[in-house]
Amino acid sequence: MEYQFGFEKLTVWQNSRQLTAIIYKITNTFPKEERYCLVDQIRRAIISVASNLAEGSSRISSKDQAHFTNLAYSSLMEVLNQLYIANDLNYLSKGEFLELKKKISEISNQLNALRKSQLNK
């Protein structure tokens, strides 16, 4: 078995990577004029979720780790807000929006549990 870094073992990191792939596929269907606006904003924010988890895992103190988990949560909420806007603009179907919101809710619960455990170390 190949070596795994700490963040690679986190279910929340794995789930955020899966959501990133889904977001990329869905935003490919957005209008071309949104390519350098809403699409880029959503993609940067969703990438930030997994990236902050990875970066936080390299921190020595639990408090620092929790800080990066909190940043990941903030980025996830940014994605949700942007998906609301995309839904308002009819770039997403109601079904797509609700499915994405469900996945975001699951990841947000995982992030909150991770942060709580980091702060209780």
Q: Overview of this structure, please?
A:
The protein is built from four helices and no strands. The protein has helices at 11-27, 38-57, 62-88, 94-119. The longest helix has 27 residues, at 62-88.
Provide the fold topology:
Blueprint lengths: L10 H17 L10 H20 L4 H27 L5 H26 L2
Helix pairs in contact: 1-2, 1-4, 2-3, 3-4
| Estimated helix fraction | over 70%
Beta strand % = under 5%
How many distinct beta strands? 0
Q: Quick check: average pLDDT?
A: 97
For the sheet with most strands, the description reads: none
**What value does the Rg take, in angstroms?**
15 Å
The poorly predicted ranges are none
Secondary-structure content class: mainly alpha
Distance between the termini: 29 Å
Q: What's the helix count?
A: 4
How do the helices and strands follow one another from N- to C-terminus?
HHHH
Q: Please tell me what the overall shape is.
A: elongated
Features of this protein?
mainly alpha, 4 helices, 121 residues, elongated
Write a brief structural summary.
The protein contains 4 helices and no strands. The chain has 121 residues and is mainly α. Helix 1 packs antiparallel against helix 2 and helix 1 (11-27) runs antiparallel to helix 4 (94-119).
